[in-house]
Amino acid sequence: MSSYTVRSSVPGAPSSRRLEFPPRRTSVQSMARDDSDDENMLGPPKLSNFGSALLSDKENVEPYPYSLSHGGAGAKRYSQQSRAAARQEVLGAAREFSSSNTNNSVGGPYSTFHSEDHSDSTMFATSKHNQQSMTTFNPETPSEQSKFEGMNMEKSRSRVKSMQQTLKDELSLRSSKRRNRRFVSSRFNLLGPAKRASSNTGTPNHSELADESNVSQQEANFSHSSSAGATAHQNEYNVFYEPQNSSSPQKDSAAPTDHTSINYDNIEFGDLNPYQYLKKHNIPTTELPNISRLYFERQKGENRKTALRKNIAAKDAIQTRLTSASLSNSPLLTQVDLIKREQSIPKRQPRRKISDHAANNDSKAWSSPVSGSNGLKTASSRNETSPRASEMYENLERPERDTFGSIRRREALSNININRNYHQLQNKRTKYSTENLEEARGIHRPRFEHPVQEERFGNYDFKHRSPPAVPERKHVEIVEPLKTTESIPLKPPATSGDNYNRKKPTIYVNGTEYEKLELLGRGGSSKVYKVKNVANNKVYALKRVSFDEFDDSSIEGFKGEIELLKKLETKPRVVKLIDHEMDHGVLYEVMECGDHDLSHTLALRSGIGLDVEFVRYHSQEMLKCVKVVHDSGIVHSDLKPANFVFVKGILKIIDFGIANAVPEHTVNIYRETQIGTPNYMAPEALVAMNYTQGQPAEQNRWKVGKPSDIWSCGCIIYQMIYGRPPYGGFQGQNRLLAIMNPEVKIVYPEKTSNGDVVPKTAIDTMKACLERNPDKRWSVDEVLNGPFVKPVAVTHFFIRDLIKNSVKYGANQREISNEKIEELAEDVWHRLADFRL
Ligand SMILES: Nc1ncnc2c1ncn2[C@@H]1O[C@H](COP(=O)(O)OP(=O)(O)OP(=O)(O)O)[C@@H](O)[C@H]1O
């Protein structure tokens, strides 16, 4: 490799550079590598680049990457001019060298070079016959050294500077071309895939490369054919746009077939993009930037026109609605007019994107048979409406194709919705204002409660559906059952010997049938039932006593009761025995039936307080019964409240089971058994007394007489006043002991537990009845005639007469003895007895 050092005069450039001559075959590669670096290309040219550029410029065999295919027209011209000038300068310098070296033979220092490289470059091969290449210069040759020294060095330096400047401009121009190419590439991407033109079968890239190859070839031909730079500058434009194939079959009449004078105003792209347009009309790709710019400007204008046209259509549609709404207020409008106006206005569309479901529903509503029969437009017929409406439909239903922009489209939709609501309101007003007219015309319109229904079917005349069929009422006959004269037996008929047909069991007493009604009470040895005589339907008490549990003495005692009852059957204060029968150890007594006994009455008044009159009345009633018994020579021996019953309001005595007839002129009887109720038994009836005369000592007897009955009556009165018997506070055996113990005194409080004052006469009566000594007890008559049972009442006249008589008696008798006073008191007392009310 040969090297040569030159001093550069370019400002900023290194003072000296070592000029190297790279191998010729790598010049193109070096250019390609430098071409990738824009910054290096913008800087001052290097001598190495200069040499490479010369070589590459001559070697047009390979595609020249920096063709003028993508440069602008002005840049292209400048590039071509500058390149032509540079070439002229280079050729001039070479001629100078060659002229100074005309005698240089083939066998000289160039012989080797030419023999190696003559077939590689056409340009170099052309010039090698006329000039000496710099690369073939060998300064070491003595003959050439002398020639070189003889040259004008100043002239050479100026030429080198000129060449450097030219190369600098060339590089700047190439950088500009590169930028333009990038811009065009980005625009191509926006245009989408290029369509295949009729005259262009290759892909755009391939076509572009082929075209670039042609351009490079044309440029090489130009460089080869032209000899003068100025002339080349003048003819460059015309020759350059000469079409390769002038007989192109497809040429647009409006297309600039004569490319020497392109009229951009006459260009019509149609459906072609700029690149397709170039290919179709065989226009060099260098015109692509200009044509692309023209294409985009026209597109922008078309878009503006389309937007303006759609805006006008939307406004016209709105104005049509408003006019229709104002006209619909007129009461003279008929229903047919309203329908026509409604048909001329498209239905409202949703603001947002229409979903498939909503669209389907909407289409169903429109395509309903009812609407079709009434002249409503279906979805397919909407396009048959006015052009303005159709255009607005296009605008509303396909917002993605709208070119207004989102804001403008939203405003348009909002306006339409607002006016739609106003239109609906006007329709409603019209509907209400025309209701009377419609009714007068006999037009029946359905009433919709739902606004959607009203919106869809609001102003249209519909035919009523046939009313639903009234369900048939089933006729049900109420058939009353036949009435028969024969009564339905509630129970099976009675048979002989069967008592099933009887309501309740019956008891026969001496042949008389008694029907058992209810149980009245139960005693120690018997049960008492309420029965009804079946023959006369009278009610009785039936006492049934079984002798199985009793010994013979007890059986004799029940038999004595019957005798006593028979004896007393005429007494009104003794329950009346109706009938009795002894059968198989069972005693039946049919008696007069009482309502309830005295124990039941006392229980009802428990806790109510003292009622002296109640006690006096019931005491008197009780004593009257006892008087009857005592007067009959009978000692009852078992007097208690349960043995007094009220029969029709009259208290009567019952239960003479242990009663004994008292022989006349005797007061007491003696029993060998202790029978009775402890609470009411007199002390003498409880204390066994040894029967001494003629009887075994171990045998005890109890003395029972009429005073025992008075004791019992005293206990009943005591219970009626204080609520319990005298020894009621004792329980069990202690009660008997207390009764028998004379030390246990009976207390008579002046007040009851409720605080009621107990009359003194009542207390005195109780004390007289409950005298331990039976001989000192009052008799029944005394009690009955006692101040409590039978109180004395005096009148005002009685007291006045008493005082008057006493004064007279004292005036006549100065001294009155005590005996005389007692006699007088007894007399008054008897008079009071006669004076009782
Ligand atoms: N004629 C009647 N009317 C209404 N009720 C009666 C009649 N006879 C008895 N009673 C009721 O039957 C109950 C028992 O009767 P009664 O006292 O005669 O039987 P008892 O076996 O003698 O009893 P006890 O021997 O224990 O005194 C009475 O307390 C009374 O309530």
UniProtKB/TrEMBL annotation:
Superkingdom per UniProt: Eukaryota
Annotated stretches, region: Disordered: 1-51, 65-229, 242-262, 341-395
The keyword Ribosomal protein is annotated on this UniProt entry: no
GO biological process: meiotic spindle assembly checkpoint signaling; mitotic spindle assembly checkpoint signaling; nuclear chromosome segregation; protein localization to kinetochore
Protein name (record): LAQU0S18e00320g1_1
Keywords: ATP-binding, Kinase, Nucleotide-binding, Serine/threonine-protein kinase, Transferase
Record SMART domains: S_TKc (SM00220)
Listed GO MF terms: ATP binding; protein serine/threonine kinase activity; protein serine/threonine/tyrosine kinase activity
Record-linked InterPro entries: Kinase-like_dom_sf, Mps1_cat, Prot_kinase_dom, Protein_kinase_ATP_BS, Ser/Thr_kinase_AS
One matching Pfam family: Pkinase
Gene Ontology CC annotation, any one: nucleus
